[in-house]
């Protein structure tokens, strides 16, 4: 359970790639315009190479500005996807208790995705942001939320 690594020296280049791709997708029909498709394909390859993530999709950044800043989305792109690990209840609890105190939105998103991968609970954000949907009080503490996640993780047979 390691903190996600972000190579800050790559951040400006990733920001440029994402911004250029998003602008291109906004201005051109990248499904039918051959030249736009070629440029987008080149940006896709460049992004995959610089992030070290061959499964990253440039099209996921099409309208990033509607929900996140360019810097945060670039940081997110530089984080490799979380992998499945065997977490202890204590580790799950620690992540949940710290989930709202991470330095950036991209880091918080990473840990939510990490918990999703490692608990098998696909709607993990509901536990944290809408605990009443999960049968908790709307003002549930993070400790109560952590206990509910751990309980549901076992009762739903989400663990391998």
Fold topology:
Elements: H1 11-27, H2 34-51, H3 70-78, H4 89-98, H5 105-119, H6 124-129, H7 142-155
Helix pairs in contact: 1-2, 1-3, 3-5, 4-7
Description of the molecule:
The protein is an all-alpha fold and 160 residues long. The protein is built from 7 helices and no strands. It has helices spanning 11-27, 34-51, 70-78, 89-98, 105-119, 124-129, 142-155. Helix 1 (11-27) runs antiparallel to helix 2 (34-51). The mean pLDDT is 91.
User: Helix and strand succession?
Assistant: HHHHHHH
> Strand share of the residues?
under 5%
Low-confidence stretches: none
The overall average pLDDT, rounded, is: 91
How many extended strands? 0
Rg on CA atoms, Å: 18 Å
Q: How many DSSP helices?
A: 7
